[in-house]
């Protein structure tokens, strides 16, 4: 019996030593560790400005459902709110309002704009997005369906309560 008992003790001792040495050995860096460290150190573009408006404040300026279209809020966070626009149950566009105080470069693109929608400077962003600048707020409509044209985007931008948004502080 003592042979079996000593064998169990030796086995337990070996397992303990094995666990101790593997737990205390230094971890080799993974292939994503360097990228994680670099992105953590970056300061620009990470934080929302302290002065940014809460996303819930934007909800009252969005267009209401109607005319065969249904809108539903999809995302809301500090400095941003977004709604999905559907027609016949299919998503046709994304509507959004964002506070540009966190991203001044977003507002800079409007400085050379010659186009206006509802009296506010407007820009086309690629072939699927139209945006206007209302004070420090960018109102944007992004087509998600090929049938939703630049003209449709401009119409939906004008359905936002832009004058009310301009008064928001």
UniProtKB/TrEMBL annotation:
Source organism superkingdom: Bacteria
Record keywords: Signal
Range of residues in the leader sequence: 1-23
Region: Disordered, residue numbers: 30-49
Compositional bias per record (Polar residues), positions renumbered to this chain: 34-49
Protein name as annotated: Lipoprotein
């Amino acid at each position: 019996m003592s042979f079996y008992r000593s064998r169990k003790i030796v086995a337990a001792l070996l397992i303990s030593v094995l666990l101790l040495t593997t737990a205390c050995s230094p971890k080799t860096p993974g292939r994503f560790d360097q990228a994680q460290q670099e992105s953590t150190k970056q300061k620009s573009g990470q934080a929302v400005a302290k002065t940014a408006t809460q996303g819930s404040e934007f909800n009252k300026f969005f267009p209401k459902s109607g005319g065969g279209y249904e809108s539903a809020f999809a995302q809301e966070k500090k400095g941003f709110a977004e709604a999905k626009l559907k027609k016949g149950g299919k998503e046709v566009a994304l509507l959004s309002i964002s506070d540009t105080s966190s991203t001044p470069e977003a507002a800079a693109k409007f400085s050379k704009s010659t186009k206006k929608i509802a009296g506010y400077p407007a820009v086309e962003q690629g072939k699927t997005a139209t945006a206007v600048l209302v004070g420090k707020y960018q109102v944007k409509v992004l087509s998600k369906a090929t049938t939703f044209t630049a003209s449709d985007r401009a119409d939906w931008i004008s359905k936002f309560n832009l004058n009310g948004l301009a008064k928001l502080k």
